[in-house]
Write a structure and sequence with these properties.
Layout lengths: L2 H14 L6 H11 L2 H7 L12 H11 L4 H10 L3 E4 L7 H4 L7 E6 L8 E5 L6 H16 L3 E4 L5 H12 L2 E5 L13 H10 L1 E4 L11 H11 L3 E4 L7 H11 L3 E4 L10 H8 L3 E2 L4 H4 L22 H7 L7 E2 H8 L3 H13 L3 E4 L3 E4 L1
Helix pairs in contact: 1-3, 1-5, 2-3, 7-8, 8-9, 10-11, 14-16
């Protein structure tokens, strides 16, 4: 970043600290006064002629403006070691610049350049099933192997498993936070956050110190979709925040993909709603790749598994075990095997990594 860009970033940061301003208002002010420095010098005395800046709003901005010292605020950012990029910079993500309200300043840690690769958003519910978790992991793994940067929100549930799938693939992933970069939310994702910082990029439009308030997450979601060629929703309830991301993607003219689930599952109702409204139903990664342009392709797109030799009895039993949880009692009925034989075979298959046992004596293929 040039010295001029860094100088202007100081004033973008100062404007960003005024709660009454946001990306749209800041952009309008820069277009009116020329540079963020000139905007700062114009606040609050010269705002009367700017469209939408009522007397009440100007008074509120004036009070906020008096509490911020641009030089001290920026020195704190530099001392804490945060990286930053402004929307005039050539490295600013190209797709994000196209949306209605791109952030004028992004704070980041990691490699910001991966956001100018082909990106795909992978999102879903915080509460999820084993089916959702496995799909998040496998799809993120495979799509990452095809060269896509996987963008998500580091939230509990589907987001976290998508990031972990990319780690396994040694690919590229970006987490867009709904708080300052100095805050880990959720707290249990400290290791995930560190991995993303080291091998991908952490990004936020919120200054360090901003807490993860509920109102922040819709703003965060528009960036997730705005960075991406498309958004894949893996599991979502009827009121899931993942649907907000999908709505933003549609508004931004991007693709929306959804993985279907069981018709009785409350965790898939949001996905089914999207499919009914025109989202592409996804069963395999090729369903996504045929719709978007990818800069890189490789053959190995499945999570690594050890090659195992199965006995004829094990192969027979595997035919009855689906990729969704099945109760032991149902396996007894379907396989017609004696319980002792069935339990021994299930143990062998589990040790070989072919199946997983879930609480309540349920089994499913890995």
């Amino acid at each position: 970043m040039s010295r001029d860009r860094a100088f202007q970033a100081k004033y973008y940061h100062a404007l960003n600290l005024l709660p009454s301003l946001g990306p749209v208002r800041i952009k309008r002010l820069v277009q009116r006064f020329g540079t963020p420095e000139q905007v700062w010098q114009a606040v609050p005395r010269d705002l009367a002629g700017v469209e939408g800046f009522t007397a009440a709003l100007r008074e509120k901005i004036s009070r906020e403006w008096q509490k911020v010292d641009p030089v001290q605020a920026w020195e704190k950012i530099i001392q804490q070691g945060y990286s930053f990029i402004v929307w005039e910079d050539s490295r600013y993500p190209l797709l994000l610049r196209e949306i209605y309200d791109p952030p004028p300043l992004l704070y980041y840690r990691g490699n910001i350049d991966i956001l100018n690769n082909s990106c795909l958003a992978v999102v879903g519910s915080r509460r999820h099933t084993v089916y959702g978790r496995e799909n998040a992991y496998k799809f993120a793994y495979g799509l990452s192997k095809h060269g896509l940067t996987i963008v998500s929100g580091m939230a509990r549930g589907i987001d976290t498993w998508a990031h972990k799938g990319v780690f396994e693939a040694r690919g590229k992933t970006a987490a867009i936070l709904g708080c300052g970069l100095d805050i880990c939310y959720p707290p249990e994702n400290k290791a995930v956050k560190k991995n993303i910082e080291n091998f991908g990029v952490l990004v936020s439009e919120f200054p360090p110190g901003y807490k993860p308030l509920p109102s922040n997450f819709p703003r965060r979601n528009r960036i997730i979709s705005g960075l991406s060629l498309g958004t894949l929703v893996i599991e979502a309830g009827e009121k899931s925040g993942a649907l907000i991301t999908a709505d933003f993607a549609l508004e931004q003219g991007r693709e929306v993909f959804a993985i279907p689930g069981g018709i009785a599952s409350p965790y898939s109702r949001g996905c089914h709603k999207l499919i009914k409204e025109g989202a592409k139903l996804v069963e395999k990664i090729e369903d996504i790749l045929e719709e978007i342009s990818v800069t890189k392709s490789v053959k190995d797109v499945s999570p690594p598994q050890e090659k195992q030799d199965f006995s004829p009895e094990e192969k027979k039993l595997l035919q009855y075990i689906p990729f969704e949880p099945l109760a032991l009692e149902e396996l007894v009925v379907f396989s017609k095997m004696p319980p002792a034989t069935l339990n021994a075979l299930l143990l062998e298959l589990e040790l070989k990594g072919a199946i997983k046992q879930l609480p309540g004596k349920y089994f499913m293929k890995s």
